[in-house]
Amino acid sequence: MIHSREHAAAIFQAGVAAADPYLAVKRFLRAAGQQLQIDLNQASSRNGSWERIHLIAFGKAACAMANAAQQIIPADRLAGKGIAVTNYENLTAVDNFEVLAAGHPLPDENGLLAASLISERLQSAKADELILVLVSGGGSALLPCPVEGISLADKIATTQLLLACGATIKQINCVRKHLSKLKGGGLARLAAPAELHALILSDVLDDDLSAIASGPTVADETTFADAIGILQAFGIWEQIPLSVQDYLQKGVNGFHQETPKSGDSIFQKTGFSLIGSNAISVDASIAAANNLGYKTQLYSKQLCGEARLVAEQWVQHACAISADIKQPTALIAGGETTVTVKGGGKGGRNQEMALAFAVAAEQQGLTGNWTFLSGGSDGRDGPTDAAGGMVDPGSLQRMRHCAIDPAAMLDDNNAYPALKAANDLLLCGATGTNVADLQILLLQPNE
Fold first, then answer.
1. Do 283 and 190 fall into the same domain?
2. What sign for the dihedral angle of Cα 425, 426, 427, 431?
3. Whether residue 191 sits in one domain with residue 46
4. Could you give the percent of the chain with pLDDT greater than 90?
5. Is the same domain home to 338 and 425?
6. 6 and 44 share a domain?
7. Paired sense of beta strands 130-135 and 195-201, if any
8. C-alpha–C-alpha distance, residues 172 and 251, integer Å
9. Rounded CA gap, 105 and 139, in Å?
10. Hey, which residues does 135 pair with through a beta bridge?
11. Domain contains 244
12. How open is the CA angle 279-284-288, to the nearest 5 degrees?
């Protein structure tokens, strides 16, 4: 069992390493003489001899991406110090950058200050200059820039309600875009008429650029009406602050400017390169499992849904195939599930999935030697210091030995203390990247 746990952790770390933001920027950006070359995803490049280049980085990988960029671009071409904004756990000093830390997953006043500094820099850029934006997951929460009339507290309250009711990240972003000056193409709007290019590390499953960090540099096709529809569908419209209700209603009635749509002239001088994603990390995990001697299967590259239900489906699948396993087998998945919070406990979606898997495995009679890991690539799952959890057939026994009822803890959304008691928390520290989650199920042949 210990052997399997070591393998699961190693396979997870291989997936995280494949999303290394520093190396990703190095692969896509190079300088030669007066020319800066930015590789695109279509085996072509964007080249220019911009005399002044503004560097702006935000997200959980901001410091690593910023460090790579400032090493490549000659210092005399930089338009002053760059600005990098990341979460507190990933804060590190970067040469030629002012580095700021802010709140995640809920925004705070430091993020508000950082957003103000970036807005000022964007508006100072001129038409013949380049703004190079380094975007990674978490950027949406880290750069709160509420529209006029909405306080940061009201925006946080709205976000908390959406998080607690199980809204998907795209649904949350739709609402946030319509309450922000930067999200949903707002950053590109402020940057015009300067040229803009974004190097993007994706933390969403289909690499939808409008969803990554709430799409600050790309067009947004959602509307004020969509935002209201989401809040009403989850039954929280009446609970959100009146200022938010009023602003969205006025937006629907045409009193506020919509987010910029495709075809808007502000996008004529903008571009992007996708430099890393969850899919790339899943492929790396599969390769690592193969190298460890496992027969490897892709379970899903778009794992989503309620974490607890997804875990039960994993167990059902494992039960169906376990009797036929003749050699060590690894099932690998990537994605991002959700949790509808009904209890008052502590945890995150990956911890909930790990605990739910262990509970379902006992209920459904999954036998043999198995290990299940669910972890966030950023090293942080929910408001905790754990990346997720790793469970095995002995997990529930270890919890009960500590007078913990696993099923009751699951019902209370209280996976963290249950997994901690069983020594089943996945603790790896902040990784400096963020490409959603990875799941690994290792199955050994029955003796």
1. no
2. negative
3. yes
4. 84
5. yes
6. no
7. parallel
8. 17
9. 10
10. 58, 200
11. no
12. 150
Q: What sign has the CA pseudo-torsion 327, 333, 339, 345?
A: positive
For 11, the token pair is: 């396979």
Alpha-carbon gap, residue 271 to 222, rounded angstroms: 20
The tokens of 17 are what?
């390493």
Asked if residues 24 and 280 have their Cβ atoms less than 8 Å apart, the reply is no
Helix axes 152-164, 224-233, angle to 10 degrees: 50
Residue 2 has pLDDT above 60, yes or no: no
Here the CATH number for the domain that contains residue 137 is 3.40.50.10180
The mean pLDDT value of the chain amounts to 94
Q: CA 106 from chain center: how many Å?
A: 13
pTM as predicted = 0.79
- Decide which of 386 and 106 is more confident: 386
Together in a domain, 419 and 301: yes
Q: Is 175 left (phi over 0), alpha (psi -120 to 50) or beta?
A: alpha
What residue type is assigned to position 74 of the chain?
P
Q: Give the tens place of pLDDT for each residue, 424-433.
A: 999 999 888 8
pLDDT by residue (tens digit) across 172-222? 989 999 999 999 999 999 999 999 999 999 988 888 899 888 999 999 999
**Dist CA 308 CA 356 (whole Å):** 5
Residue 341 domain-assigned? yes
Own/partner contacts of 110-113, CB < 8 Å, gap of 24 or more, are: 111/85, 111/141, 111/142, 111/143, 111/144, 112/144, 112/145, 112/146, 112/152
Kindly report the backbone phi and psi dihedral angles of residue 378, in degrees, each rounded to the nearest multiple of 5, phi listed first: -85, -5
Whether 415 maps to a domain, the answer reads: yes
What pLDDT, on the 0 to 100 scale, is given for residue 211?
A: 86
Give which of 156, 148, 59, 69 is closest to 107, Cα–Cα: 156
Q: What are the percentages of helix, strand and coil residues in the chain, rounded to 5?
A: 40, 20, 40
CATH number at residue 434: 3.40.1480.10
Residue 154 lies in a domain: no
Question: What residues make up the domain containing 328?
Answer: 2-10+279-443
The answer to whether 443 and 322 are in contact (CB under 8 A) is yes
Residue at token pair 């997951």: 137
Q: How many domains does the chain have?
A: 2
pLDDT(447) > 80:
no
- Residues 306-356: pLDDT tens digits? 999 999 999 999 999 998 899 999 999 999 999 999 999 999 999 999 999
Lowest mean pLDDT, pick from 78-87, 208-217, 281-290, 308-317: 208-217
